Amino acid sequence: MGLLGAAAVRDGGAALPHGFWAAVRVWLEKPQVANRRLCGAAIEAEGTVPLGEGGEASPPLAAVRAGGSGGGREVRSAGAAELGRLWREVRGQLPAGHGHLPPPLTGWGGPGRRSELRAVLRTLLPRGRPGGPPAPPTKELAVQDVYNGTVTFLPLEENSEGKYQIKKCNIYQIQLTHVKDEEWSLSIVAPFPEDWFSDGIAYPKLAWLGNELLSKLAKWSVEQKPSEFKSTLSLISVAKYSKVYQNLKEKYKEMVKVWPEVTDPEKFVYEDVAIATYLLILWEEERKEKGLTKKQSFVDLGCGNGLLVHILNNEGHSGRGIDVRRRKIWDMYGPETHLEESTIMPGDSHLFPDTDWLIGNHSDELTPWIPVIAARSSYSCCYFVLPCCFFDFYGKYSRRQSKKTQYREYLDFVAEVGSVCGFHVEEDCLRIPSTKRVSLIGKNRIYPPAECALIDKQITQYINNRQTCAVVMCDRRVGFNHKDHSDGSCKEEGSELPKNETETAGTTWMPGFQPREKVVQIRNCASLPRDFVDDVVLNVANLLLNATPAKSCSNMHGGNTNIWNQGESLSLKEVAEHLNKETLKRLKSEYGGLQTLLKNNHQVFEVLNGRVHIRDWRKEKPSRKTKPEVKRHLSAEAFKTRLCWFFIHHPDGCSLPSESCPYAHGTEDLRQSHVIKKKKHLQ
Known about the structure:
Blueprint: E1 3-10, H1 18-29, E2 38-51, H2 77-93, E3 115-126, E4 138-145, E5 150-158, E6 164-166, E7 172-180, E8 183-189, H3 206-222, H4 238-251, H5 254-258, H6 265-290, E9 298-301, H7 307-314, E10 319-323, H8 330-333, E11 339-341, E12 357-361, H9 369-377, E13 382-386, H10 406-420, E14 423-429, E15 438-445, H11 452-475, H12 530-546, E16 551-557, E17 560-567, E18 570-571, H13 572-577, H14 581-588, H15 593-600, E19 605-608, E20 611-614, H16 629-638, H17 645-649, H18 674-682
Parallel strand pairs: 9-10, 9-12, 10-11, 12-13
Antiparallel strand pairs: 1-8, 2-3, 3-4, 4-5, 5-6, 5-7, 7-8, 13-15, 14-15, 16-17, 18-20, 19-20
Helix pairs in contact: 1-3, 4-6, 6-7
């Protein structure tokens, strides 16, 4: 009765019971990782609430955390008193009376002893709904009993008098029980399952709690992989972010329909909407902290498509974007959006003394320079960077810490640059559709204005040392001595650059700096001559088809059984050994080389785990029903718009009949491509 689900957990790494409480914390603070219909939770208050003798609640002992700010700041003791008042009200409403929990829930505390409980008041934040506003937020009081290994969730509803009442039908409890040795049991129980109310958002179905949530909690409880990064949106209010994001998403959704670039419109539009949302809230809180009334100004260095600049301008922030290459979409924004086509060379000619914030959103080679430019622009200039590609001051970033992931190491480097420049650097994870979503923020200085000259000298020396290290590592000279490169400094006798070399070029801080090219060179094999590509494809296909032993599969067309040659699979290395030197040399100048060319020709080849196979279209799975509408539309438009390679070149022809093959069996079967026409029109 009331048992929603139970899971046996084997703990061979001594993760429990601490891992259980870590898993509960994830469910409390980031419920959206399990329940996708939520966008997050705001922790309004938390503190210890002792359970006194006879079930009487004592005054709370601890202060509580800031209400959903995400910053973990302490608030005045009035917050603790409010939590204590709420706790006393709630305990009196429990169905079993006198602060007792109804069965089958495990009661709080041990027999004949006082027990401290920890109460967490949270607000669940629903995602926006298509064509309508999001559902209203829901409050819950979660009560953790470490002694018994339980956390009880008490959903709250506010009555007309402004007081909270327990939604008794939706109480549930998560329990951890030690069975023996390494065996534990995790379960979820509800006292009134027959009365459970599910809205499909904050209150999922009981089956979801007993299956989906339980399995995730069991998995998280024994995972001992501490995250390399901070929690998502840890520096701002999740509740405020959710509201502003939904408003901006609705406001700028039309951009998806008119996006003229070749990039994915949904990804780039909603990513920039999310970044703009974050900055708007960050800047609003900064104005409150510093007592500012005027909205902050900004410059986006390497602004790309300029959408972030467009949104920030529209939302009342004066600023501009600068990029080395103009984009087609710039013409769509109008005169209120300020975008400039210009090359940025780190130096005295590219300082922004009247700008409040510098932005580096996937700014590539400018990323490590942005803290430097901000520090030298003015004492009040701040910065926000979202690193993506890995660049040092002088070129591509070289790894120096094998114990870290490359991404983590690069983030530490960019953070170190900010610290050297005198900033208190903060890190936060953004909620964007990208694997590179960690931002670094410098909005406060750690030195007084009188020390600006000293900091500037420190910056110059740091940049010189980074360049010296690069030269030494490249040359691999004898006598190179390094202990730890994490501080960005290394020494080699006789290898130091001339004093103040970064200043010898006048206004340019590093003469060897290479900005990105104005014209993007396509090196993904897409620009190779068609006859060259066709020749390589035919050679590789013949190599696979003639390899021994050849694989053959029966092929039934109209009742006739034919043997269709699948060929043999070879490693990329084996394939490369059969190509001539001129072909290999040409392929090496392209990103990905031979593998990229073969993957580009996916009609003919399949590359799996470093091995090349002839693609058998009979084994291709049909498109899933969940495929996005846009992609389904494009697939339909592309049907029969290209000739079937197998029909023309394979000794056994195509493995599929003409009506089933997505490619044309002969010119009479060929359709005109509307997709190609559309792309040409956009260009």
